């Protein structure tokens, strides 16, 4: 039996309890506020809000209203294109995470990059990094599902394995894993909106993770637990469109 590659996560002070609290917060929103109120339209709204927020984090200047009306800028259009196919990738990421990551990038980069660069890593080192991240997705682990999503997100952002759109891909992968691993199967919480609302902390903690220091990684994990709790409150189940 292979060793658990994410066992170290559950040994970090405060991390298991932080993620347990975040999961409880998500469960409360989905169970108590979502009872008899969920619909495909709710999921579509959540995905749209997420695409808008992810686009802004990537440099878009479009408002949510502009994105909703199909009048957003190119970056927001890239993020929306990813969101429209995201949940169809659930069975793909379960069996072939590398294929799912490639598809996310192909969607994001469509119209921006040459066709032969869509879904392809920058170089051999980046290809190896993607294989390592894919192994985390399929590993048998005791780590909380939300923690796995957080690590995958950070690895894809800080290592930038694709020639473009790495932030959009990373945030889409995070949402995809939260749905795939059964935390939020209908994708009603909005982690991208939480990261945007907490942008200073989001970007600071990603820099800390990129340092490779244990303190930076620890801080990123604690931050994401906070963000996932905020993601539940950003759900259309809770908050009406602005």
CATH topology: Fic-like fold
CA distance, first residue to last residue: 50 Å
> Into which percentage range does the β-strand content fall?
under 5%
What gross morphology would you assign? globular
Determine the mean pLDDT.
95
| Percentage of residues assigned to helices | 55-70%
Give the low-pLDDT segments: none
- At CATH level 2, the architecture is Orthogonal Bundle
- Number of domains as seen in the coordinates: 1
Q: Radius of gyration over alpha carbons?
A: 17 Å
Structural class: mainly alpha
Describe the structure.
It comes from Nocardioides silvaticus. InterPro entries: Fido (IPR003812), Fido-like_dom_sf (IPR036597). This is Oxidoreductase. The chain is mainly α. The protein is built from twelve helices and no strands. Helix 10 crosses helix 11. The chain is globular, with a radius of gyration of 17 Å. It starts with 14 loop residues before the first helix and ends in a 9-residue tail after the last helix.
């Amino acid at each position: 039996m292979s060793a658990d590659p994410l066992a170290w996560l559950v040994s970090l002070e405060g991390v298991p309890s932080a993620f347990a609290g975040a999961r409880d917060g998500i469960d409360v929103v989905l169970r108590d506020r979502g009872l008899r109120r969920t619909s495909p339209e709710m999921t579509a709204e959540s995905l749209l809000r997420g695409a808008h927020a992810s686009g802004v984090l990537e440099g878009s200047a479009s408002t949510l209203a502009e994105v909703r009306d199909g009048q957003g800028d190119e970056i927001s259009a890239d993020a929306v294109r990813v969101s429209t196919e995201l949940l169809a990738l659930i069975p793909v990421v379960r069996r072939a995470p590398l294929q799912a990551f490639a598809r996310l990038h192909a969607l994001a980069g469509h119209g921006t990059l040459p066709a032969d660069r869509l879904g392809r890593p920058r170089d051999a080192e980046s290809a190896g990094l993607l294989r390592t991240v894919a192994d985390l997705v399929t590993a048998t682990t005791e780590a909380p599902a939300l923690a796995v999503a957080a690590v995958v997100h950070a690895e894809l952002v800080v290592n930038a394995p694709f020639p473009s759109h790495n932030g959009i891909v990373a945030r889409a992968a995070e949402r995809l894993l939260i749905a795939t691993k059964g935390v939020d199967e209908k994708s009603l919480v909005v982690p991208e909106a939480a990261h945007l609302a907490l942008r200073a902390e989001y970007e600071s903690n990603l820099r800390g993770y990129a340092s490779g220091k244990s303190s930076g990684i620890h801080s990123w994990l604690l931050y994401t637990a906070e963000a996932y709790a905020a993601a539940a409150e950003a759900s259309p189940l809770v908050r009406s469109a602005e």
